[in-house]
Amino acid sequence: MSMLDYRTYEEAKEKFTIDQIWELFDGTPEHFNLGHECVDRHRDKGIGVRIQFDDGRREEHAFADLSRLTAQFAHVLETFGIGRGDRVAVMLDPSLDFYVCLYGILKRGAIFVPCFTAFGPEALGYRMKDSAAKLLFTTPELAATIVAEGRYRVVPTEAEFRHLMAAQKDTYTVADTAAKDVAVFQYTSGATRKFPQAIPHHHKSVPLLMPAAVFGRGYRFGDRFFCPSSPAWGHGLWHGTLSPMALGVAVGSYSGKFNVRTLLEGLEKFEIDNFGAAPTVYRMIKNSGLIDNYKLKIRKMHYTGEPMDTDTFDFFKAKFGVPPNSGYGSTEVGAVIYQYAGFPNWVAKSGSLGKPMPGLEVKLIDKEGNEVPQGQIGEIAIHRRGKWLRARDAAVIDEDGYFWHKGRVDDIIISAGWTISPTEVEDCLKRHPAVQEAAVIGALDSERGQIVKAFVVANQLATKELAKDIKEFVRINLSKHEYPRVIEFVPDLPKTDGGKVSKKGLK
User: In CATH, what number is assigned to the domain containing residue 102?
Assistant: First the structure.
């Protein structure tokens, strides 16, 4: 029995074994390449990518075209001296160029390093240096603003590059990578390091995501899927791009400045029936009052990154007759606890994380590692390789076995689905000439879940103009999504006996 055939959570929990994931692919653990699995083997399956641009344009690209162009790109990488295991960074919004770069890099056996197009010079420079990337592919406009200082080559995707591509053969023998070989360096904001950490993901990471893709997201061949999350980040890349395409499911993406009306137009025109996004996007759609102006065909919904409020959950369930299904996991751990769009009889509880992924052992533990009783708060822990791995999130399990999230164990901020490291923001704040000290926390926000709030000790008169200048400084130098939306000037910061800033005191 294939894992695609399970109809209930109980059936999958009883019968699913992890070795069943390999039945969905051509490759084996010894010979496995994501470029082949996500593109080449689906050449005859029609459309592979749909893109809604912020200016209203829409594009569709067939798997066959992606196969040809990624082959040419892999040859280009070879001419640039890129070999197996070399790091190649890409800073592009969803576009034909983005998907060609992604899968061409994987075909070559190199390592893909995604970079968000809103990154300022500090955020980009850190990732390029830390990953030791040899090339950066980006738009001509962004390329003109980047100073590589000889450490790496910046390649703008413009006419000269396209001529180079066109001169290459349109077939390519993909690198003989193994499932254990590294495919992606995905940067995440963690609590254990001052700066974002590169988490190495392997070619086998997509097979390991199949339970989440098939059971949690409900991907099936023929679905018209759309995810507006940026593929520069975990949700947009793994759940919005790689895992559906590995199943031959065409993906839909949003490119450019987000606009609810433009998104809804894309969902209508592309006849999307499987939709996944951050809860913030669902809230923005609900609050816009525009949804009834469009003839939408959505029959599966899912979200991740943060909880969804009850009003938004109820609104979408009433609108489409099916509930939005949550997915909980992390870059470091993978898929852990889900509501299940892939099971027709699944009962989604509003506000709940759901139940553990079939085949995965999950429990709640206290500080000493002891399992906590049902109904009490504990830290989510996953059994991996003979030990319990802490997820740094607190939860409660109800009488039906559903998990309920109770907040972060550490100080990581989750804003509109983005995971933000306070220390990275603080480090940038302290570079502003008017900032003497700074500390950052997550403040509750009705739309974004949390926003970045900075407490600043200034060395000059605190004014609204200064606060605006500091926000702009972080937005430009770090990232457009990480800057503090609220700045509170204070005479000093609360400190512990050891002299460290007390985040508890700030909260």
Answer: 3.40.50.12780
Q: Are the C-beta atoms of residues 177 and 202 closer than 8 Å to each other?
A: no
- Sign of the Cα torsion 277, 280, 281, 286 reads positive
Residues 6 or more apart whose Cβ sits within 8 Å of residue 318: none
Phi, psi of 110 (to 5 degrees): -85, 180
H or E element that contains 206: helix 205-211
CATH number at residue 373: 2.30.38.10
Mean pLDDT (the chain) is: 92
Tokens read off for 101: 């770069």
In a shared domain, residues 91 and 105: yes
Query: Closest by alpha carbon to 395, among 382, 410, 380?
Result: 380
* Ramachandran quadrant class, 149 (left: phi over 0; alpha: psi -120 to 50; beta: rest): left
Last residue of a domain, one of 348, 378, 406: 406
Per-residue pLDDT reduced to its tens digit, 410-465:
777 888 888 787 878 988 998 899 998 899 999 999 888 999 999 999 999 999 99
C-alpha to C-alpha distance for 294 and 226, rounded to whole angstroms: 16
Are residues 486 and 430 located together in one domain of the fold? yes
* Residues 333 and 367 reside in one and the same domain: no
Buried b (16+ CB within 10 A) or exposed e, 234-266: bbbbbbbbbbbbbbbbbbbbbbbeebbebbbbb
Strand partners, 378: 395
- Averaged pLDDT in 10-residue chunks for the chain of 507 residues: 94 95 97 98 98 98 98 98 98 98 98 95 93 97 90 93 95 98 84 72 96 97 97 93 98 97 98 94 94 98 84 94 91 83 94 93 94 91 91 91 82 81 84 92 91 95 96 93 95 71 79
In which element (H, E) is residue 125 found?
helix 121-131
Per residue in 461-487, pLDDT (tens digit) is: 999 999 999 999 999 999 888 999 999
CA atoms within 13 Å, Cβ hemisphere of 299: 12
According to DSSP H, which parts of 302-376 are helical? 310-320
The Cα–Cα gap between 494 and 448 comes to 27
